[in-house]
Each structure stands twice: as C-alpha cells, then as structure tokens.
Amino acid sequence: MNVKWGAALFAVFFTVMLLLPVSAEANQRIFIDPGHGGSDPGAIGNGLSEKNVTLNIALKTRDILNQEYEGHSVMLSRTTDQTLSLSTRTNMANNWGADYLVSIHINAGGGTGFESYTYNGSYSGKAETNRLRGIVHNAIVGQTGFIDRGKKEANFHMVRQSAMPAVLTENGFIDNSSDAAALKSNAFLTDIARGHAEGIAAVLNLPRSSQQAYVEILADSLWTYNSANWNDRGNIVHKGEVYKVTGSKFKVDGGNMYKLANGDYITASTSYVRYFKK
Ligand SMILES: [Zn+2]
Fold first, then answer.
1. Is the CATH number of domain 213-277 2.30.30.40?
2. Interval between CA 97 and ligand 1 midpoint (Å)
3. Would you call 216 a catalytic residue per the annotation?
4. pLDDT: is 253 or 22 the higher one?
5. Kind of pairing, strands 265-267 and 255-260?
6. Which of 50, 115, 170, 198 is catalytic?
7. Do residues 69 and 206 make contact, with C-beta atoms less than 8 angstroms apart?
8. Residue ranges of the domains in the chain?
9. N- to C-terminal Cα separation, the chain
10. Model confidence pLDDT, tens digit, residues 224-265
11. Number of DSSP helices (H) and strands (E) in the chain, helices first
12. Which of 34, 63, 93, 150 is the one with CA 20 to 30 A from 76?
C-alpha cells in the first residue's frame, strides 16, 4: 500500500469512528413482553384472562412509542395469543441486544393496585436498573392512579435472565372486582400503556416525534364518530377544518378510520379527508 492510499484509508477510518457512536445511540431497542399466552392463560378472574390483557397493553404501549417518539425500535415477544417459554422470551431480548426490557403482567391472589419488580440477586448495574425502574413505576402510577404497592424485587426469570435493565410490572389484580372492572375499560388499558410508554421513553431519553399527523376535511360536511363504529355518530365537521390525528388508520367494517386527538373518530377515506404530517 502506498502512502497516499494509507492516508486516505486512515481518513475514512477516522470519519467512520466519528459517525459510529452517534448512529448506534440513535436506535434504542425496547423489548416488550406481554406475559403468558397460548396454552398459558396466566391469572383468571372476573371474566378476564391475564394473557389477553397483557397483550392488549403491550400492543398499545408499542403503538404509543412508535407514534409519539423517535430514535427507537420495539420488539414484542408475541403479538398474538401464542405459547412461549420464559427462556424463549429472554433469549429473544438478549439475542436482539435490547437496551431495556419490560414484562407486563396482571396480579392475582388478593389485593389491589400496582407493583413492579426487578431482580433480587446481586449483579452489576443493579443500582441503575432500580433507578430506571423507578422512572417507569412512577410514570405508570401517575397515569393510572393505581394504588402504589411499591417497588419490589424478586427472583423472576424475566428480570433475572435478561442481559439488560429489566422491569416486570403487575398492573392491578384480576381477581379484585374493582381492578378487574377497570381492566375491562379500553381507556384504562390505554392509560396503563401510556404510563409504560412514557416511562420507557424517559428511561431511554427518546425524543418526541417531530411530526404531528393531521386530517383536513375535504367534504362540505362530514360526521365524526364517538367510537370506532360507523353507527356511533358524533359531530359534524366542515370543509377546510383541520384536526390532529393520533395513530395510523385502522380497519372498521369494510372502511378505514383515524382516531383524532380530541377522542373522536373519522373516516380515513381520501374522498372525504386529506391526511398529512408536519
Ligand atoms: Zn403473570
């Protein structure tokens, strides 16, 4: 190799070294584990199965993170009603190189409210793991108004066998009638998910998404809906008005809707609305 090529390669090497840490930091990996699933329903009570509630919360948490934050990717251990061993779950997170792991559960056995767990063993980074857990824990209690049962430690597989800071959340008691009633409310599950998402975002210092989505009304007048149901008409909106959208469009009975930031729903049909971000 001649001197010129050597210098050029050295310059390239230096440039790459300068760029690498920035791009590595820009993508924080969040692993979300909806507890139980498939042949393992988890706790059961008041007509609820833990596996369904945890999946619902996990999907909502993923969606809030993806819609409202940048600089991360999310992996779920399952996105359907699937049987997975605990080792499969922690192997997925470890092999992926997750930066943070949250395992979502619903409690049972008498009690009410929220508690969270980190690993009770001694390990390097324990103080930091517990500090980060405090951020997630407080965000969930703040969003939900759950009675705070405390920040606890236990020898649970999900927090012991994960190679990154990890927390296991117990979101209310399925066998407590008032907790269960709350867990049947879609809005309350969204609050739980928002607590998880905002806690995780704070832990990983995720920037808020710089782009807000909107719809502009194209039709002279157009119905909104109180729920994701074409029969549940709400208000009339008018041509030229612009509304903030939360999330992406979703299928409702042969059509598509957006949810608006004000809580109403609206058609996503491009004949009636124009979707844009800015
Ligand atoms: Zn559980």
1. yes
2. 24
3. no
4. 253
5. antiparallel
6. 170
7. yes
8. 24-203, 213-277
9. 50
10. 999 999 999 999 999 999 999 988 888 899 899 999 999 999
11. 7, 15
12. 150
